[in-house]
């Protein structure tokens, strides 16, 4: 099956949204915890969290300021802090439900049955049910003029993860804590490890 | 287990690289096909491809100009075109091997046994063994001064995918074509679908 540029541009809008969202491959599944300056909590599922670097430890995510997670972006700008909480298979439905259009004064924690947790004096809320989560300090955002989105960059401050998932070399076995992955807009998947491969070298 | 900022900064460098690379969650697995202006082909595995938007159809990836995929970035700047090819479970080892430090005049296609394929008059090479692949026209790169990486943004031009994987609503069942996902630096995973969830609405 071959779709040309013209064919893509003429697709029905919803069909095209599903199609194009499938192309990047599997995506990360994370809940972003924030609060506003009055302490009202907010939680939003995001599939665009991406590793930016380990030295310093940086994480990025793409935000669409005019779509649902806009309260998240506003809270990050107002307070400078947020949490990232991996979604596991036990909380997929609650996590997905955070994408509904709740008002700014409604907390997605209360609405979905996920539980706020405050750890190590960090002011943004964590998700108690998440098994790998970290505190993030906002660094900067870069506006992507090409489509009006924002790349939000943060530094990883404090990491909370189940002991047993950390292997000897520092790799975290996120499959063992049931972390899920997303494809397209709305499909959730468990994983089964195939292999870990050694650092690739050119044969002599 | 709780790692503070200080604890993270004092970790052994390799341990820390594995640890921090695990935090974003599951990553996409794609091969980037390019050629230089003399027609020498290049292929590099990248785990940072990310959906940026469907209208227009845009895709991003993070490149580290001073690490292995630097030839890829140079070729994109020189020619303005590249291909993105999803990695499936049949080609995991060859795909991973493209991350070795080959010289600029050595093609990772030849070195790993993956096959070049030219489709619809597009000048960058596709991977014949990939079952979902698309032609991309370079749009721009944004320098992330915070750690010297580049966000490379491209427009999706031409899509090639197996017919049977496209569902009625446009969603592509990438699990059915054995697309894999990556965790950390070097762990490859198959997936098993849990559920597709409807567009979330606030209960009345």
From TrEMBL, chains A, B:
Superkingdom: Bacteria
InterPro entries attached to this UniProt entry: Flavin_Rdtase-like_dom, Split_barrel_FMN-bd
Transmembrane segments: none
Entry keywords, A to Z: Flavoprotein, FMN, Oxidoreductase
Cofactor names: FMN
Domain Flavin reductase like, residue spans: 31-164
EC annotation from Swiss-Prot or TrEMBL: 1.5.1.-
Class of this enzyme: oxidoreductase
GO molecular function annotations of the record: oxidoreductase activity
Gene3D superfamilies: Electron Transport, Fmn-binding Protein, Chain A
Keyword Flavoprotein among UniProt keywords: yes
Family: Belongs to the flavoredoxin family.
Protein's name in the database: Flavin reductase family protein
